[in-house]
Each structure stands twice: as structure tokens, then as C-alpha cells.
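Work Package 4 report. The design task specified in the project plan requires that, given a folded chain encoded as C-alpha cells, an amino acid be chosen for each position. We show below one input record used in the internal validation round.
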């Protein structure tokens, strides 16, 4: 799973949460560091017993890939205009 997969989940509503095992490679840190961020509240999460679930929307916001940016990237008419015209 990568950041584009998470953005697609947000856009399509395919899944509302991801697991820590799916999240830490996206962030690019160790598994232990990721879990520490979950425990101390740095990374947005929900805890059910011993299980952490990471809501896709808040996770993208935390990464700086807000919902608006995701929507803009999916709209072909709103993409950046190339400075090179040929």
C-alpha cells in the first residue's frame, strides 16, 4: 500500500481506516516509531482494545495531503498548468 492507495480510499470511500502495518511504510519510519506515534497521539488513530485503526481522512490531513488536495488531484481540469509550452 502507498499514499496513492490511501488517497483512492478517501476519494472512493472504499475503506474508512487502515492498519498500522499499512501506515508505517507510507510514513517512512520504523514500525516501532509508528506505534509510538499512535500511543502518544501524534498520529491520529482509534483504539479498540489492543487494536489501532487509523482513519483515512485524518491520516491524510496529518500527512499534509488534505481532502481538498486529493479532490483537486482527481479533477483533470484543476491540475497544475505546465510552464513549458513547447
Amino acid at each position: 500500500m502507498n499514499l496513492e492507495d490511501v488517497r483512492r480510499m478517501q476519494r472512493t470511500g472504499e475503506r474508512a481506516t487502515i492498519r498500522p502495518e499499512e501506515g508505517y511504510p507510507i510514513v517512512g519510519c520504523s514500525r516501532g516509531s509508528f506505534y509510538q506515534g499512535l500511543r502518544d497521539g501524534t498520529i491520529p488513530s482509534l483504539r479498540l482494545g489492543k487494536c489501532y485503526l487509523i482513519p483515512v481522512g485524518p491520516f491524510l490531513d496529518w500527512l499534509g495531503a488534505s481532502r481538498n488536495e486529493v479532490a483537486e488531484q482527481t479533477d483533470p481540469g484543476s491540475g497544475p498548468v505546465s510552464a513549458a509550452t513547447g
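Confidence is low (pLDDT under 50) at residues 69-86. Validation will be extended to a larger panel in the next phase.
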